[in-house]
## 1
Amino acid sequence: MGGSELRFLAPFRGEVLDVPPIWLMRQAGRYLPEYRATRAEAGDFLKLCYTPKLAAEVTLQPIRRYGFDAAILFSDILVVPDALGQAVRFVEGEGPRLDPIRSADGVSRLTLAGAVSKFDVVAETVQRLRQDLPHETALIGFCGAPWTVATYMVQGQGSSDQAEARLWAYRDPEGFEGLIDLLVAASIDYLDRQVKAGADCLQIFDTWAGSLPDDEFDRWVVKPTKTIREALRELHPDVPVIGFPRGAGATAVWYVSETGVNGIGCDTATPPFVMSEAFDEEDVVVQGNLDPLLLVAGGEKLDERVDEILDLMEGKRFIFNLGHGIVPQTPPENVGRLVERVRSKG
Amino acid sequence: MGGSELRFLAPFRGEVLDVPPIWLMRQAGRYLPEYRATRAEAGDFLKLCYTPKLAAEVTLQPIRRYGFDAAILFSDILVVPDALGQAVRFVEGEGPRLDPIRSADGVSRLTLAGAVSKFDVVAETVQRLRQDLPHETALIGFCGAPWTVATYMVQGQGSSDQAEARLWAYRDPEGFEGLIDLLVAASIDYLDRQVKAGADCLQIFDTWAGSLPDDEFDRWVVKPTKTIREALRELHPDVPVIGFPRGAGATAVWYVSETGVNGIGCDTATPPFVMSEAFDEEDVVVQGNLDPLLLVAGGEKLDERVDEILDLMEGKRFIFNLGHGIVPQTPPENVGRLVERVRSKG
């Protein structure tokens, strides 16, 4: 089946399906015993990302179990800084650690040329997946948005307020822009390689888009995403790009209009029907937004909410997804129940 | 000066001032050396909240320095669970700790009757402040919203995703509702006592409003806040209530319409001009939303942004504030610079 006929891509072609396509953020992950086994085999988390055979295997695992309409490349948004030369390590139970970069001098030590070999390893995973995936399954490539990736590079780890990146952006906007510009260039190159290797669709994860006031949101979230979107359109006009500006709330509509993304991922707090209504005349696919914790709870409440979302989105160009990634304590059978419920629609 | 002529209350009377009233969330706090001294004198954080002389002193400190248009009672949102019988302790450098409540049985051991003596201690602070505050300074009372307070009571501490409260609400909505109902009743009683003791205005802090999908947001954020708002209106029709549903984003407009709050606090990511435009015909005062980290950075960028916010809000019923609380590393002189800049307007 050629990319353009994939069921997953129908909403981007302007089609409304009776049963919306479904995939789930972090569908390959710790809630699956087979993932935990492959993860143990790899030893280190980044080694899992950089070993095409194993990364492809964990990407395929949820497809085998649930038959989602799309697979998403298994990787991590911090592959980009790691490839650029800011070594990333994952501390068990704590998360990622990087030696923080907080000056133009630190940025100058990173190189895009040096990143290519690691990007190509990820592209090899994509190639492998393109071979091994069922013909009817779309393959989503992805990267972290420059802003979100920068927050980790500047903080040196995850944080609840992204304070160091925000402070650097206020105190030395030109210096911080150097980092963002490098990430824009790297993201374009990285996504281009993913598409050339076989990705049918791309998602840009902007997990920390919600911490910024409007002027900073425009400069560090909207404009870089727009540059990436436009560059990709030149290179691959038919490959849709989904933006996921988590927490953008009242400014998510603006994000869509300005960046030119083809799809908008709604976080748990952003009702898809509200987002959809804001774009009645525009060609934007809405994706989301079941609460990952309701997928943990399961039961009739899960069924009822799934039905409610489907009812509210009937007749719209819609992709069923969560509002954030699957959490590790999710019972795998609840994911099966969800997929069955969505598919029993219509 | 009687409460009704207070400058701070002018926007609630429908007046547009050339220079908007200004106060800052967490204006009494660790960024001030005199606060740190009083805090050290009290020893324990909760003891500071429960000692009227000391709590009044730290409330007054930023008024002496900056002459804000309003003081906000110094207390903590966890006074309510503590008073209800779920002992709260503050661990230095880590935050609050409570023995988690996760069942109707746990709720049944809490009592509103037992809370009164601690509420009255807080009311004594309010009385003291009413005497000691300059006549032109309004006094804001407050409580945490039931949802946000419940997230701490169920989790037993702060958390980034409020998972335990959300899971309980999904698995046993009736049981969780028992906790919310108790918090609604306690909040009404607590705020009533604050007004009787001299508070001119009330704010309801819903720090974790942004984690909920629309149906849960309606049940656990909007409806309880509406009940509190309506009860207070019966008791004290002239006392305005400001809601601060942090992270509500696209659903903040709905929150205002449904709850009947008189003012809406905009978080850092919610542009006040967007919020204001949504309520052109309604009697809602918009408050916010300078980034607390820009107050850390200071400099010309701070001046420019203050001017921009003032320009965008010109002619609107507006209260100048931050989008979240002052952070401890804020240089006190930047707060002075901000106040001067706002006051030099017009």
## 2
Amino acid sequence: MGKRLMSEMTWMEVRDAVDMGEGVILPIGATEQHGPHMPLCTDALLSEKMALDVAKRSNLIVAPTVCYGFRSRPTTGGGQTFPGTTSVRGSTLTAIIMDVVKEFIRTGFRKIVLFNWHFENTNFIYDAAYNVMEDTKQEYPDVKLLIIETPFSKLKPETMEYVFEGQFPGWGIEHASIFETSVMMYVAPNLVNFSKAKDDQAEYYPFYDMLPIPKRITTESGILWKATLASKEKGEVVWKEICENLVNSVNMEFTRWEKEN
Amino acid sequence: MGKRLMSEMTWMEVRDAVDMGEGVILPIGATEQHGPHMPLCTDALLSEKMALDVAKRSNLIVAPTVCYGFRSRPTTGGGQTFPGTTSVRGSTLTAIIMDVVKEFIRTGFRKIVLFNWHFENTNFIYDAAYNVMEDTKQEYPDVKLLIIETPFSKLKPETMEYVFEGQFPGWGIEHASIFETSVMMYVAPNLVNFSKAKDDQAEYYPFYDMLPIPKRITTESGILWKATLASKEKGEVVWKEICENLVNSVNMEFTRWEKEN
Amino acid sequence: MGKRLMSEMTWMEVRDAVDMGEGVILPIGATEQHGPHMPLCTDALLSEKMALDVAKRSNLIVAPTVCYGFRSRPTTGGGQTFPGTTSVRGSTLTAIIMDVVKEFIRTGFRKIVLFNWHFENTNFIYDAAYNVMEDTKQEYPDVKLLIIETPFSKLKPETMEYVFEGQFPGWGIEHASIFETSVMMYVAPNLVNFSKAKDDQAEYYPFYDMLPIPKRITTESGILWKATLASKEKGEVVWKEICENLVNSVNMEFTRWEKEN
Amino acid sequence: MGKRLMSEMTWMEVRDAVDMGEGVILPIGATEQHGPHMPLCTDALLSEKMALDVAKRSNLIVAPTVCYGFRSRPTTGGGQTFPGTTSVRGSTLTAIIMDVVKEFIRTGFRKIVLFNWHFENTNFIYDAAYNVMEDTKQEYPDVKLLIIETPFSKLKPETMEYVFEGQFPGWGIEHASIFETSVMMYVAPNLVNFSKAKDDQAEYYPFYDMLPIPKRITTESGILWKATLASKEKGEVVWKEICENLVNSVNMEFTRWEKEN
Amino acid sequence: MGKRLMSEMTWMEVRDAVDMGEGVILPIGATEQHGPHMPLCTDALLSEKMALDVAKRSNLIVAPTVCYGFRSRPTTGGGQTFPGTTSVRGSTLTAIIMDVVKEFIRTGFRKIVLFNWHFENTNFIYDAAYNVMEDTKQEYPDVKLLIIETPFSKLKPETMEYVFEGQFPGWGIEHASIFETSVMMYVAPNLVNFSKAKDDQAEYYPFYDMLPIPKRITTESGILWKATLASKEKGEVVWKEICENLVNSVNMEFTRWEKEN
Amino acid sequence: MGKRLMSEMTWMEVRDAVDMGEGVILPIGATEQHGPHMPLCTDALLSEKMALDVAKRSNLIVAPTVCYGFRSRPTTGGGQTFPGTTSVRGSTLTAIIMDVVKEFIRTGFRKIVLFNWHFENTNFIYDAAYNVMEDTKQEYPDVKLLIIETPFSKLKPETMEYVFEGQFPGWGIEHASIFETSVMMYVAPNLVNFSKAKDDQAEYYPFYDMLPIPKRITTESGILWKATLASKEKGEVVWKEICENLVNSVNMEFTRWEKEN
């Protein structure tokens, strides 16, 4: 039972995985600016890497990543004015996920995890999941869907202190900044050009949004906060904490669901 | 400049408002369970009432409320297993808002505020707003859209202390609980049956979601936290703080936009 | 069994209504110009008020009103050139109704009435109703849908004589005129500014339609016929006749359906 | 200027027609039961034949007929329980018309007539027409659309008397009955099997609709009223009156529009 | 078993055909330029005529033809720059076919053939067919769909030699040229103006496509190859070979399917 | 000008590429069974690798691959009965491509190549491309789209002879067989388990399609023809020929387009 990436498996290997009772996890990311020091695939890559790490410890197969996400917003991703940011409409995102999850079900999977690493995808994923359940519940009443729209809700206080050094600005603004840069340095160091990392800040970050996007609520660099405080070591700490937490949750939930049936 | 509710105005009064440079605010809510003590219209009503209070101080007309929202989720609204909760698909919500905003633009409004009071509507509203801007920017390049998907991001520390008495559980879970009950007691006391308010809690509130919805992550009552700590006085304090904040934001943003053009 | 407005009920009260075998009625209206003397909400308000009057005598709960309707047409509503008229595409209207009716069914309602007061909504409502039946008939074979796209087909001859005084121009053109003004004076007198009522008329009212809309087939005021002949007394007569008729129909149909099953 | 049917023309002939300033008319019908004596194509055929007769006298080309219409309704077409009736969703009908009209515009037509002979298509056609105008007005500001959703609104009193012999039941119910049978006997006698014509009637014809369709509001034969009173002579009279009326309207409207520009 | 065209049958005749176990065939074509010598309906007409010839020998009813097809492409149909070519979006084509096939199923047909004569419709038809099967398989598990997106894959070598005289350019380019012109001369000679037939050729025919369409990959006439080599006799030969082949396939497949059940 | 993969570039690098006049190529593939010896990502991987090889010699950036394609068909991909095959509806594929191409345009790209390696995606891609051009031509009149739905139309005769050894069965059936296996052995040898390659064949391969899918028209292994004749050397020959051909086409077309403007 070596392979975990569905893309690299043959159909027979997938069939065998289904027969063994394995589940499937769908990484969902984005193609979005992440400052001058990180690649557009940051969200897609982090989603896929974490899904893989979780999969290894949760009896899951990792499906090909949904790499185009919903439109970037100024106060959480810089917004749609950056070249390179390549987004889809909400209805498109919902359609992809619906179709793919229905195919998982046809293939035989009954434990399905949707794993997202891009704030703006929130609710579209849930919509897709709910629609699929409505459409399939009569024919496949035993499907279980775990919808993870944010990879975590909070970190341990000591982790927060270690990572942010007292300068935590809120998760929304933490785009291409300390947290994400650290994590990328840990899992994909060759894709980070740390010499270009900088600290940046919009004039202010409103709790609302505006169109057309005024310059004052986003930054020139695409970094929304401090990136220079990042380090590979910090990345490792949070990655492992998040992963551990996810593995526990996935295993616990499917176990409980099984017992309940 | 008496009337504020577009529904009660004649077309000539709306035309005159446009000619005077007034804007329009669209309240967006939901029809969703709010425990045994509050009505299904809670989100729609709060959205409309707040929009009206803001409108009076920001030169805005209040459009008819979008009273059906996106699907309720267990850890923020109890979820779609409650009878009475009456939700729409995400694509439907997006469609309504798109169409209505385009009509505002045709009518002549150039300052448009989308005001939401239902967490689950997030991103669908932004999707609608973005789509409209794409579709209309050539013909109407001077439209400004303010998209307020959450009525506030935080309250003053002293307000938090006063309202929650040290027991703040996070905003998601604060459904039909201290905050919302207090606010309803202030703005619509006749719709609150406080004698039925109770404290409740799910076994746990995960940061992810599950379908089909397991009982362990929602409550029997639909109250997700402590409702008994609510009071009209608390409601008044938070209502006024939120309103004040919104009025300042709306006025400030449109003023700055105008200056920039 | 006091409350009739679903919006003001708690989820438990709705559940109890379902358990008692009650049905639900969905008022569908529009936000459309109704001359210089009546508000944009006229169709939405009349739909809701009538639904409520019917509900009280037919064991129905009144759901929140669909207040944005399909595009206004020149010869029946003045058309889409009036500011303030705020309409949605047909597909949007269909989507809202489909979603909401499916939620009624999930909630447990089996007697569902769709009640419309806006000519232009015709057929979109039926499309929605038909789609829902197709989608749900396997899981919920016992749902009954009553689709009332026009509140009545004709009035008694003596009522016609009394109301129109020999000047009945056809129902299409009767927009914001004698009939509607009278009814509004009866059910919502505070929203009618009768001093602004006037008689108006397009150059002609063709049986077809045109785009872009030529001025010659609509009026400047938005009143399509004689509004000055309206009176509260007339409104009361027709309101009661329509209501009586609807109550009889609703009760008769559900009774017969029940007997047939 | 011989050919009138676009389907039989070459692309060069269409191009020449456009260059001569001719317009285009799109017949819209249905595939719907019309009793035991008339074919399913009745609405499509009548729509096409009338469009052709009008086209000959109005400088129009006749486009291929939209032969699948919106769902049949019990009190105007027998309803969707009849085998053979082959209908489309409203959104499908709207989509076809939108696409086709946009192609007319790309081809160069500026005078476009939508001509319908199937009550249930109402409003979907207008929706399509309106959408097209919204989408194209910037690029093609000179397009004129005439939307004829019903072929006529009324006939001359003497015609009514002659055709119905005092037994006119209302136009909705006049399905596969005196009027339609007469017209078919005139324009397509070989498709009418008059020996199977009969008089029929539902228990009653409500002004509302019901799903699932109860037998009591439709007929067994699909004829909704008296078909035996039909005759070819009656058909000729009404056909010519309707045609004359349409020709006058089409010519008058395009002439006035031209003058106004 | 006289009539074959569903459009000319009454609903009772269709019902009887269903009761006799007959199937239905849906011709799908296009409204597309076919050079200066052939009409826009060429694909629709050939589709319908062939369907009829097949139907007579396969126990099938011929449904009304889908006469608007997907967008013409330069190297297979001349492309969307020709006036007269009147196409629909892919989603529209899929919607029509889905709706119509569902109605066939409701009517009672269990053997359904989709027969296409327009290369560009490929895959949209399959999408529609697949969607219908997904939507209906629970309620109607015994439906069989034969999807014929190209009328044949190859002709006999001797036929190829006879028809093309050694100048076969590939099927894509064979638009409005030898093959199609010959066939039209055989089945609809009155619609072919052979005196206008000519030989034509683009600068080159790439295996890819381009937008906007450059003149170099299409022709001025709309004929993509040699039309002058066509003859009625050639048309008869290929028509009969194609028909024979189709009849054998249809009969063989439904027979085998029946045996397998 | 080092990086070619957009996913690995920063937004600033993409902006610079645009400023240098570079174009973008979007690989489109599928997640589809490719026999017991090749992975599900075969089409996605080949599409991406070839796009990259072309990009290096054509001044293009390679966008993230669309890795879910339209539904597999029995005679070209084995069909939708294989577990692991994970497909989307046609409308979903069209939506993704539309959205992504519009973002390319917003980012500033004017030379856009859509490159597909999955037969079933045909026409959906063209539909997307055409829709985008319609939607954007007013705002961005200088966009050029090259739509490559098949990577080649034919190979040199000597290549055909070398690769197929006289056993070429037609391109459709060449799924997971000599050609594709050879190419995969050349570009991704570690993903091919050649020891599991075998020769296989359906009872027959009809030129039409059937639903539900009968076993007789597909194979058990998913290989549709002879895979054992594949070799890395053959793969290299065809890969280089295809690549050379594509590079020439892309460079030639954009050069000519530029000259024409």
